[in-house]
Amino acid sequence: MKYPICSECFYNEGLKLLCQKFGLKSNEKCCNCQKDYGYKISKENLHEISWEYFVNGSYYQSEYGGSSLIMFNEYQETDVDFGKYLKEDVPLIEKTLGIGFFYYAPRLYKLGLITQLEKLQSQDNSAEQVLNEIIEKFPTKVINEQNHFYRLRKNVSNPNDESQFDSPPIEYSGNGRLDSKDLNILYGSENIEICLHECRVSIIDDLYLAKLTPTKSLKILDLSAEISEDNTEFESLFLSVHYLFRAEEHSYDICKKISSFVYSKGYDGIIYPSYFSRVKTERIPNIALFGSPIEDGKIQIKNIDRIRIDKVDYNYTFGPLINQ
User: Fold this and answer.
1) What is the rounded distance in angstroms from the CA atom of residue 205 to the CA atom of residue 193?
2) Strand order in the sheet with 207-214
3) What digits encode the pLDDT tens for the residues 16-37?
């Protein structure tokens, strides 16, 4: 049969709503629950829903990296205690698809157990070895007058004062991902939405967006680039850097260490993957320029606009509660 179940066969609200996303609205009676107003679900639909809800919905963010906690296949019986909100729905899915749900044991590199990342966290000479490898392996990019990016400021006292869009004075530096007490940073992005995310804006903020361009060629290390590697994921430099920039504030000390080292090698800045790229469909880089590039004449402001948030959209999925 083409549609063995429908959305009304489920008790769980998250599964019902996912049925609306993947299923077919039809007035035909469901052959399982006999209701005629549900979204009809094929086996292919149910497989997609199960993957979205149980696999993607059980994703766990570890200190570095992360992995789904639950997987399913046709070879194993269910050994996960899902609790009361799924006690009727899981058996229905098991019977319809002939599958079982189980705890997934990921390869440990997915949880950040990578040799290069562990070396960066160490206090000995092995960290500097990896820093030199970062300089060697990641490409150098030159940006010039043909390039531009954006910088967002909120609640500035005088938005007509172009110095308000330069990096903060050194005495106020040290709270961001790459800046430190010894190195101030001008942060920006080619993507305006990423600027809004990075600045954690609210609808009551006064927001101002500057378009910036270099006045001369600037030497930038591109940490957002993919690099070719001959080793396994457990020794991957690319994954180590990628996980660092996806991590929370506990990663900042290592990121600052990278930033200071790159600066000491004569670079003008770094291109790096945005923390918020995970909520975008494409990989979006940010740019960090060392020092005070507007004051130093390396960057000029081409335009400043007031910007206002008038709509926010969210994409989301659902996931299971698991009895611990």
Assistant:
1) 15
2) 140-143, 218-222, 269-273, 285-290, 185-189, 149-154, 207-214, 299-307
3) 999 999 999 999 999 999 999 9
